[in-house]
Amino acid sequence: MLKVLVGIVLAVALLGGAALVLLGLRGMLETSLTGGVGAAASVSDTGIGGTGASGTGASTTGDDEGGTNGSAAPEATPTPASPSPTPEATLPATPALSSATWSTRDDEGGRTLMIVPAPWARDALRDPAQITEVVEHLWSELIAAVPEADTTGMHDQFLCHAWGAPDKASWNIEPWRPDVGLTATLAARCNPR
């Protein structure tokens, strides 16, 4: 499904689709695949995937005393605040990041951060049930190792590689590339100009 969503975004971007479609797909991708990195506030502010107006998880099935309100409705049962959590994938205790090394690429325009994920992380990126957790874990390890990589443009390049090229020998992300947004980064095959 991930490849289908990325393919749709790339196709729409390359064919010059409407900006609203691109923004909607960007929000959906970021929210579903990165746990809301970059778009969580705007997505939940619109009510998409949010908790609605009440947002409290409290039961709204009648009064608290269990009485009736004049109708013959069955007795209400308490509603849980949120659905039962699904069991999260357990990531290995070994690092997800094999290496992150700065290099200079004169043919490209400057410094590049060469990211090499651990083999287990690459494998887990192919599993839709684990991709969100692995991407977040890998990004947090990268930022801990290389704090200067924590920019929106480099994060978009990172996501592009994680989603679209997990088997590439190294994921090369560059601070000098323009921050054009995730959709345009995907359309530029992770290398916006």
Written account of the structure:
This protein has about 190 residues and is α+β, with helices and mostly antiparallel strands. About 40% of the residues lie in helices and about 10% in strands. The protein is built from seven helices and three strands; from the N terminus they run H-H-H-E-E-H-H-H-E-H. It has helices spanning about 1-15, 20-35, 40-45, 120-125, 130-145, 150-165, 180-185, and strands spanning about 95-105, 110-115, 170-175. A three-stranded antiparallel beta sheet has the order 1-2-3. Helix 1 packs antiparallel against helix 2. The longest helix is centred in the first third of the chain and has 16 residues, at about 20-35.
Task: Produce the secondary structure layout.
Elements: H1 2-14, H2 19-34, H3 40-45, E1 97-105, E2 110-117, H4 119-125, H5 131-145, H6 152-164, E3 171-173, H7 182-187
Antiparallel strand pairs: 1-2, 2-3
